[in-house]
Structures are given as C-alpha cells and as structure tokens.
Specification:
This protein is mainly beta. It has a domain of 104 residues: Sandwich (Immunoglobulin-like), CATH 2.60.40.420. The protein is built from four helices and 30 strands. Strand 11 and strand 12 form a beta hairpin. The longest helix has 14 residues. The two termini are 18 Å apart. The relative contact order is 0.13. Bound molecules: copper (II) ion (CU) (3 copies). One copper (II) ion (CU) binds next to loops.
C-alpha cells in the first residue's frame, strides 16, 4: 500500500505499461536479419537501439506531451530514424515491414494504442508530431538519441506525422498514419506450445517424519515454445516447462535423482542443484547425451530455497534457453501455513532479433556475451503471468512467493507494486533472522528469496523487477485480489478504493 501521492502517480503511469500483454499485433522495431544455424545464430550488434533520449526542453505548441491515460495499452509499435541526404530530410522506417522505407505509411487500426519512436540518425534537431492525435515526441538533437510517444488512434482516416522544426516538414520530413483496415502481411509461425509453468504448480509441504529417500526425475526436453503471443523460440527445458518442476524435500532427506535427456534433443544436458553438497552440484555425474539417462544421489544437508540449472557448456546459453528451476529443502519444522503459495522465476532471453517482433527468434551468442537480453520474463514467456496464468487470491489471504532468478546474468530488484513484503527470508536463507516490512528485495542470478504478505485491499498487484526498463522487455506478473473494498486502508476520489477496472 503506497502512501504518498508521488508513489501513486508513478504507479498510475506504470499501470498502463503493465497492462500491455501479448497482444502485440504488428511490430516495426529492430532488425530482422536472417542468421546462421540453429543454436549459434550470429546477429548484428547494437541493433536494438533502445537508448532513451535526454530530454530536449522545447515543446511544440498545441501538442500534448502528457502520458496517455491509465487504460492505454500499446498494441502497435513503429520506429523511425531521421536521415539527411543532399539537403533533403526524411524519416526512414526501422524494422519489420517499414525497414528502409522513406517516410513510410504506418497502418494502424482504429482504437490501437500506437507507440512511435524516433531515433536521431543525423545529429540535427528533430521531433515527430501527430497533431491529429495530440501526440509528439520530445526534440532530440544528438545522433543516437531517441524519444518515444504513445497515443490512441481514436479517429478513422489519415493523420499526418511530421517534424515540427521550422522548415523540416517542407524539406521532406512528412508521412502519414492510415487508421483502419490495412493489415501488414502475416508471416507464418512454426507450430509451438506454451512452455509457461503455472505459478500454482508446486507440491504442498513435505510430510513431517524421519528423513526419507526421495526419487526425483528430471527430463531435458527441447521444444519450440511461445516466447510471446506471436513470437516463438527454441526452448531447452526441464520437463517441458519454464521454470522446471518445483522440487520439495526436507532437510536430511536423501534424493535419488534420475536425469534423462529426451531422445529428440540435439544437445547434451545436465543438472546442477545448488542444494547439493559435492563438486558440480551433480553436473559432473549428469552430463547426458540425447536418449540417455544418468543418476546420482545426494543428502540435503542445508535447508533453503535453491536454484537448479543445466550446467553443460555453454552454461549461460542453456540457462537462458529455459533450463532452471527451484528446489526447496524445507527446514525441520517446515514453514508456517499460508493461504497461497506461488512459484515464480525470472530469466533472460538473448534473441537475434530485437524485442517484440513477430515470427521465430533464434539465439544470439553475441548478445549473451554482452549481457544484453532482448527479453526478460517471469516463468518463461511474455504474458506468462499476466495473460496466461495470473495469480489469484482474496482479501484477507496470506501469500508466500518462492521467487528465484535463473538469469543467467541479471540480478532482480524484486518488488510487488502496491504491496509491502511483511516477511522476507533474505536470499532464501533459513535460520537467519527474518526481515520484516521490506519494499524491494535483491535476488541475485542463481539465487532466490521467499516473501510473505497479507492482502488487505482488492485490486491488481504487479510483480516486477524494479529495474523498470525491464518491464518494456516483458517482465511483469499479476496478482489479482478479489474481495470487499477496504476504504480505511485505501481510498480514492469518487469512492474508488481499488485498482480495478483498467
Ligand atoms: Cu526535423
Ligand atoms: Cu542443457
Ligand atoms: Cu549454479
């Protein structure tokens, strides 16, 4: 529950961004370079061009710079770069169907929320404005700077876009947005499946009693999965989902782990569990070619919530492709009872094409080595926990989230917008003092946390990494809370007391 108006304003501006989902219909962003073979596709570096612009102060009279209202959800993205040639100025399309097109016509549907980006490519001051929709970017003067505007195309017909600097429109910087009817040609997608792990797909507490012998089976499965509603990727998984299955044992248990690599795999795979005491965490004993099975046994000496992942070279490639999960070694007495437990993991994908394009993405080793992911996701895919499996609870419930970062590289500043963690097991450490009343908790790559909180107010709460640029690359999850309003705790104007209804 945020208490300051500043925080609420930020929340409001975030909400519309967060309500974007997998409904991206036409994406003009970034390069669409066809690249090499399956797992080692090369890509052009620096293609994403997502640097944000320093604000250039002057604004164009009559053009609103205000953020769109909270209900806006971007459905179409176009990017333009500026160009100067022989005294003529122009906008040139970047990515998708408008790549390289001078002053491209931008088709949108009536009602679409359009995100229009301008990248300065000539070092001359420009902007792009769409007066019909009271929209425009900031002015950007330096080469490489960029600015973005978002507006709703709420009227049918043609709308001009142009540069508002004196003389630039006349010098050639003008095009049109056509609202209604025209759809870009649709590329075929390969057959794909959902690889999303339902956050409620986890076993209940391990039964009390003496230490047990527990059999665990993991299978490496490679499959073409949906990275976003119109984007596919060749995932490598444990048991077909991302993250892999939530393994749950009790301290002192001995695990007999069977690791199988599906016969249809192309790669060798393995598993390294951070809960294991012993070299490689099991990876040494489980390097498994396609179609084979290996096993090993370990005793869980330390309680805690641990990441497991594939540890076959290139390890970071295997992890980013989806091979990570959590194993919970419960302390002897278990944890307290809560109404809901959820299983959420954060990961990164390094695709050859920039974020948000339709079609099949391939892996980019260059972006992996540069640690520049195109996608950051919860439970494997864009929209996994907003569209496909939003978490649900009721006012008065207590929730516990087992949260881990598969990575392979990016530390998460884990936060729930609109809530405060009542209790945090920092770094998922068991036996340490529990932290109380935490806003944001750091979870390193290859690390985990356990957070608990009670729900007092209905509405939609949003799990994020508070490094919020990552929102723009897919990182959001919803916790939808139903139940009676609680005006004593949260109350707005006009009797609105919750975040419902965007
Ligand atoms: Cu200009
Ligand atoms: Cu692997
Ligand atoms: Cu590790």
């Amino acid at each position: 529950m945020k208490s300051t108006t500043g925080a609420l304003a930020i929340l409001g501006s975030l909400v519309w961004v967060l309500t974007w989902d997998t409904g991206l219909t036409r994406l003009g962003a970034g390069e669409t370079r066809a690249t090499g073979h399956q797992h080692m596709a090369q890509s052009a570096p620096g293609g994403s061009g997502k640097a944000s612009a320093p604000a250039q102060a002057p604004s164009t009279p009559g053009v609103s710079r205000r953020s769109p209202a909270a209900e806006y959800t971007p459905t179409v993205r176009y990017r333009l770069r500026t160009e100067l040639a022989e005294g003529k100025m122009a906008f040139v399309g970047v990515g998708g169907a408008i790549e390289g097109v001078v002053n491209p016509t931008l088709p949108v549907n009536q009602g679409d929320v359009v995100q229009l980006s301008l990248v300065n490519n000539d070092g001359i001051e420009h902007d792009v404005v769409v007066p019909d929709f009271k929209a425009g970017t900031d002015r950007v003067a330096r080469k490489g700077a960029s600015s973005v505007t978002v507006f709703r195309a709420d009227k049918a017909g043609d709308a001009a876009y142009f540069c508002s600097l004196p003389g630039h429109r006349q010098a050639g910087m003008e095009g049109k947005i056509v609202v209604g009817g025209v759809r870009a040609p649709v590329a075929a997608l390969p057959p794909s499946v959902s690889i999303v792990r339902d956050p409620m797909d986890l076993p209940g507490p391990a039964a009390p009693g003496p230490p047990r012998m527990v059999n665990v089976e993991l299978e490496a499965i490679e499959l073409v999965g949906r990275l976003a509603s119109e984007t596919t990727y060749n995932y490598w998984t444990f048991n077909g989902k991302v993250p892999g299955p939530f393994l749950r044992i009790r301290v002192g248990d001995t695990v007999e782990l069977t690791f199988k690599n599906n016969a249809r795999s192309r790669m060798i795979h393995s598993v390294d569990l951070h809960a294991v005491t012993g070299p490689g965490g099991g990876a040494v004993m489980t390097q498994t070619p396609p179609g084979e099975t290996k096993s090993f046994r370990f005793k869980a000496l330390n309680p805690g919530l641990y990441v497991y992942h594939c540890a076959t070279p290139m390890v970071a490639n295997h992890i980013s492709s989806g091979m990570y999960g959590l194993i919970f070694v419960e302390p002897a007495g278990g944890l307290s009872k809560v109404d809901h437990e959820f299983y959420v993991m954060q990961g990164e994908l390094y695709t050859d094409r920039s974020f948000g394009q339709r079609g099949h993405d391939e892996f980019s080793v260059e972006k992996l080595l540069a640690e520049r992911p195109e996608y950051l996701v919860f439970n494997g895919a864009v929209g996994a926990l907003t569209n496909e499996h939003p978490m649900k609870a009721r006012v008065g419930d207590t929730v516990r989230i087992y949260f881990g970062v598969g990575g392979p590289n990016i530390t998460s500043s884990f936060h729930v917008i609109g809530e405060i963690f009542d209790r945090v097991f920092g770094e998922a450490a068991m036996g340490s003092p529990i932290r109380t009343n935490v806003q944001t908790t750091m979870v390193p790559a290859g690390g985990a946390t356990i957070v608990e909180f009670k729900l007092e107010v209905p509405g939609r709460y949003i799990l994020v990494d508070h490094s919020l640029s990552r929102l723009e690359r897919g990182l959001a999850a919803f916790l939808v809370v139903d139940g009676p309003e609680n005006p004593e705790v949260f109350h707005g104007p006009n009797g609105a007391t919750s975040m419902k209804g965007h």
